[in-house]
Amino acid sequence: MAQPERAPVSDNREEILETALGFRSDLERTARGYVTDAEAQDVVSDLLCAIERRGLPQFDPAKGTLKSYLKRSVIYASYRVCQARERLTQFVETSQEHPASESGTTELSLDMLTCLKRFGPEARQMLLLQVLEGCSIEELSKVFRKSESAVKVKLFRVRQEAKKWLKKGGYK
User: Fold this and answer.
1) Sign of CA dihedral 85, 90, 95, 97
2) Nearest-angstrom CA–CA distance, 108 and 41
3) CB within 10 Å: which end of the chain, N or C, has fewer?
C-alpha cells in the first residue's frame, strides 16, 4: 500500500498521529541505519508518544512534508541514542581498565551503571548529558524540547532516585 508523501496536516493530534503511524515502518527503517533494531523501535515509539502528547507545534508544512520532518526527527533522536551509547561504552571501558582502588572506585562505577539502567532513556540521557558533557539546563531544554523547569524537575527526581538506590547499596 502506497503511503501519501504529502499528507494533509491539521492541528488535530489524533489525525497527525494517525498519519505518522502510517509512516512507522519507514521511520523504523531510517532509524535502523543508525541504531540497533530495538533502539530503532524505541526511538520511533518515543517520537509517536511525543506527537500524541504535544502534537507537532514546530512542524511547518511550507518547509517540507510531514514524512521528511518525522524522518529528520528520527535521525536526530537516533544520533542522541548513539552518543549516549558511546559515552556509556567509554565509561565502562575506563572503569574496566583501571583496577579497583582501596576506595572501591570501579565497584562504584559499575553500581552507577546499574543504577542508570533503571531509568528511562530520556532521564538517563538527560542526566548523562548534564554530568558527562556539562550541558546546561537551557541546552537540555532545547534538546529534549521541554521547559527549563520540567528539565530541572526531571533531573532532581532522577538524582533523588539514584541517591536512594545507592544508599540501599551501602554508599553514603
Assistant:
1) positive
2) 31
3) N
